[in-house]
Amino acid sequence: MSILMQSLISGILIGGVYALIGIGLTIIFGVMRIINFAHGDLMMLGMYGTYYLFALLHVDPFLSVVITMPLMFLVGALLQKGVINRVLNALPQNQILLTIGLGLIMSNSIMLAFTSDYKILSTTYSSSSVSLHGISISLPLVISFAITCAITAALYWFLLKTNTGQAIRATAQDREAATLMGINVRRMSILAFGLGSALAGAAGALISPTYYIFPQVGSVFTLKAFVITVLGGMGSVVGATLGGVLIGVAESIGGAYIGSGWKEVVVFVIFLLVLLFKPSGLLGKSRT
Amino acid sequence: VKHYLSLALITFSIGALLILPIFVESTYLLHIMILIFINVIVGSSWNILGGYTGQYSVGHAAYFGVGAYTTMMLMQFRHIAPWWGVWAGTAAALVTALIIGSICFRLRGPYFVLASIAVAEIFRVSALNLKNITNGAEGILVTEIPPLTAGKIVITDWTTKVPFYYTGFFFVLLIIVVSVLVRRSKLGYYFQAIREDQDAAHSLGINPTIYKNTALAISAIFTSLAGSLYAVYVGFIDPGTVMGLDLSVQIVMICIIGGIGTILGPVIGAALLIPLSEALRSNAVTDALINAGIVNAESKTGAFLKENLAHAHVLIYGILVVIVILFMPAGVLGFFRRMTARGRRAA
């Protein structure tokens, strides 16, 4: 029973970070209908940024979210403005390959710059844990979960209450109608990609104290991000939040009961089942 | 006239490639040629599904890996010669394709792409974890390939690269002939109809499920042949190299860069990408730059290039893909066709 509780709780905590990655991808998909295969690589950039801020300037990894988020927003906005805006009307497969290509460029440039060695960001509290009724929970996970909740809450507020947020949602709902209502759709796309990248960067910063940092780390998270967004329903922010937590729990429980080598298979099997039986996802409306 | 010209060109290139190993001593060149052949085979077989039928599978490493693993496991653990094992590999790939097809072809567009990735990843992780069958992450190393004999005469004992060269070349010719036949047959028109508009094709009586699965079956069989050839030639496989996402992506890139949905596209794609990435990997580019006097070997740049350029071949892939998609969406072949057409119009 305590194993179940233990894995359930750590699953929920890590699921918070997954939710951030998923929300970023789903916003990008919602606004532009592009599946961003470079999403995990954007997150990897966030991890490296955090690592070097810590190693060179001794900025606490959780504090550095304040720096990585705006930086990654800029990276994403520039990518959208310079490259991705050009293929908005291209074939979907070409869009996919373009983002794959961008991801390869990012991960391999990082490899050239910083070698492919694994880096570990160890803070004074990296291995400390909190004990609760016989269940021990890693402290960095708890902090990152708290920050995740704060970021998600701020994001919901932004999307629901501000004019810009509503414009982004309107663009996601219907591009043409949004244009007719006087919304600058191109600017919304840039904003959306920036926002998605910032969230990926934040996820990278938050996960870096508990995860290995290496140039190819992105592809693992890209795949996870897909699973999360499809599970929640492509384009649904609430769905991605839920999907992130669900995948975190599924991984953690699968790892505890079936063996850690198989936990990815558990995730992919869930993914295929959702695709087959409820392709619109848990909270999605349509398949297109 | 144009028809005869291309016929002469084809005959000439086949002839030249047939006699190449007789005149070329360099094993390195043969090695590059064999790698190109393997990539032409996978590219062309992907093209049947992705190019003609419009189903962008990014999980073709599954069939490559299933072929490679079946052949290698039969050879190393059961002592069955690879030229028999290869066919077991194609059978295994066919079964795999039918299972994957029945799952993934219910989905369209980006959902199909994602599902194909997921299935291939399930295969990779399974190969990694089923240690008692596949040897897990350690992979399988070939210790000895049995000599191929006809009666008492030894045809080849596989010690040089030449037999692999001809095997690869044979399969290349085979897949190209199959591609041409498919494209010109009724089957090929069905495939293209599904690519252009699945619903319209369906309403005209073309059953999309059956024909998508047919395309996948052909594609999977040849991909598995390429996988087996790769495995026996290189002599070592592990789940990451023969079943990884990188391989699936590389297969798609060969077609996109060359020109998707054309017979020659995958050939051009492989002939461009493989020498380029091999040159970078083997440091040939750096050496050439140093020898030409452009970069000083002792200088900081020289040392940096020597150290790092070998790892950069994937970076070049990435840059190429971005350039091709932004500026030549119909691939290199399509780009040149448009250029020559424009030139003719101007003249």
Overview of the structural elements:
The complex is a heterodimer of chains A (288) and B (347). With 288 residues, chain A is mostly helical. Chain A is 72% helix and 3% strand. Chain A contains eleven helices and two strands. Chain A has a two-stranded antiparallel ribbon. The longest helix of chain A is centred in the first third of the chain and has 31 residues, at 2-32. In chain A, 52% of the residues are buried. Chain B has 347 residues and is mostly helical. Chain B has 17 helices and four strands. In chain B, helix 3 packs across helix 10 (208-234), helix 4 (82-104) packs antiparallel against helix 10 and helix 7 (162-184) runs antiparallel to helix 10 (208-234). The longest helix of chain B is centred in the middle third of the chain and has 27 residues, at 208-234. The two termini of chain B are 20 Å apart. The chains are: A mainly alpha (288), B mainly alpha (347). The interface between A and B is large, with 41 and 40 residues.
Topology, pairings included?
The complex is a heterodimer of chains A (288) and B (347).
Chain A: H1 2-32, H2 39-57, H3 65-82, H4 92-114, E1 129-132, E2 135-138, H5 139-161, H6 163-173, H7 175-180, H8 185-207, H9 217-232, H10 237-257, H11 263-277
Antiparallel strand pairs in A: 1-2
Helix pairs in contact in A: 1-5, 1-6, 1-8, 1-9, 1-10, 2-3, 2-4, 2-8, 2-9, 3-8, 5-6, 6-8, 9-10, 9-11, 10-11
Chain B: H1 2-23, H2 27-52, H3 61-78, H4 82-104, H5 109-129, H6 131-134, E1 140-141, E2 148-150, E3 153-156, H7 162-184, H8 186-196, H9 198-203, H10 208-234, E4 236-237, H11 239-243, H12 245-258, H13 265-281, H14 284-291, H15 300-308, H16 313-327, H17 331-346
Antiparallel strand pairs in B: 1-4, 2-3
